[in-house]
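Data card: per-record layout.
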Amino acid sequence: MSKKDRYPIKTAEEFVDEWIKQSPQLFSRAKELNIILENEDGTPMAPYMLFVTGQTTAGLMDQGGMDRKTKKQTLQLVATIKKFNDALRKKADPSVTEGQIKEFFEHRHTHEKLQKVIEAEWVTFASLAWYGYSHDGRGILYINDFPPKGAKFVRMMEGEPPIGPMKEMYQLVKTYDPAKEFIAAVLIPEPSQVYLFQLTQKPYPPEAYQKRKHVFKK
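The structure for this 218-residue chain is written out next.
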């Protein structure tokens, strides 16, 4: 049997994909234990937060002042998560480390949270993107931190595509459809991270601009 056949999960991304796909059984187990895995707004807890729950220890629960009954239920869920995680680890190439998995999972979780924030303020960001494109041509909307402390449209200069992390950004800006979508880069200072997005939804950027064009005339 080849290494490829022995380890169907070969990357951290594949591990996380499989973890998320199979996580409903963990939510079912939590329900059996009367543990509510919901956010304050009633939406289901993100799979990443369930993944982190599996790293909780009895000592941490004691430090948090958890009562005995809740602690017992939570420890049972933690044990289930650990078994679940161990089963997936057996399918993963040994070169895929726990650190890589956690880092990728956390990055994806943050990316999804930021995307929801952008989509919640869609008209504002889409109108900025269209205004920038209308005046300067193709470019990218840079958003500083969250909640947004500022957003600036920057035109992509012509020339050879850059190398390294900027290459993906350059390619997206060269090919996106400004009439239906925009490219955004969210800069998170601590820890220093850049999250890249290619987003589309209605109202499309031109229509979003029409809703806010009075702002740009000031």
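Known properties of this structure: The longest helix spans residues 98-120. The chain has a mean pLDDT of 87.

See the next section for split statistics.
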